Please model this.
Amino acid sequence: MGLTVFSIDYQSAHFQLLEKLTANKDDQTFYLTSLMNGIFFTEMVIISTCNRVEWVFLSPEPTKALSVLMDCIKTKTNISTSIIQNVGTVYNNDEALSHLFELTAGLKSMVLGENEILAQIKESHSFCLEFGTTGPRLNKIFQSMIAAGKQVRATTNISKGAHSISSIAIEAIKHSHQNFLNEPILLIGAGVMVKRAIAKLTSLGHKNISISNRTMSRVEHLSEVFDHLSVIPYASIRKRLQEFSTIYVAISSKSMIINCNDLIHLSGPMVIVDLGMPRNVDPECSKLAHIKLFSIPQLEEVSNATLSKRSADIPAVLLIIQDAISDIKRWEMYRNQSSEQWVDSIQFG
Model:
């Protein structure tokens, strides 16, 4: 049974194309339901973040499975299969394992060594596990990936001084708006990036933080953990934008949450960070004189500043990955031998 990864990321696809290909939970449900009902896929996990989407699957016929996957992506996104093939990379078997472990270790992230990818991969696996599209092999692989990712960050310096996308976003706000710690900020979302932003802002001493999300129970829980958070209803966001000098958006939505008409009549300057994929703030807002808008492409430029300081630890990270992959291969060999012995016992017992 072949292991295959079909990968599209920020290096292979331009941002506008990548945001059309990204897969939120509803999109993942579509892919998993459509593909797993066929004969070419036995297990699947989909990883989708702000700068990549990866289809990880087991198939008895990987070539045919890829063809079916391309057609399914085309159906969902209306992007031609030729474009999808041009921007995607296919990894098989050993290459696929190496790619997945390097991804989890932060070696393939926009920010080398960043931590957010670890939580995102864990969440992706948990979603597909609950959905019922994983089995013994992918479960073993993903559990090993997550364990190796934790070991990498605990025993090497690959993450030392590494800024996650969320912390880079806070630094960008800080540089653009010198007094932002004393002025109200609105966070939209309740995922990993927002939680990390809250932690960063709290460590900086920011006390005037409001938060909103479509699922109110998630932000209400955060407000219980961080007592300086104020919760505002999601439906009230546009009406209350004038109360804030900084907006931080990191939510999974296929539609724009904020557009030019929402901002054009505001009097004071405003800094907006949009970490949504696809984007949640209309890019045209950056043309307004009083708006400073940061999205992922701009933050990528900032992330390169500390790259060289952490690159020296890459060999140590690769050794941890090699050990973890060797462990998986030993597990697979033992599992295959046990299966063969069981078959023999049935035939000749």
Summary: The mean pLDDT is 90. The longest strand covers residues 2-9.
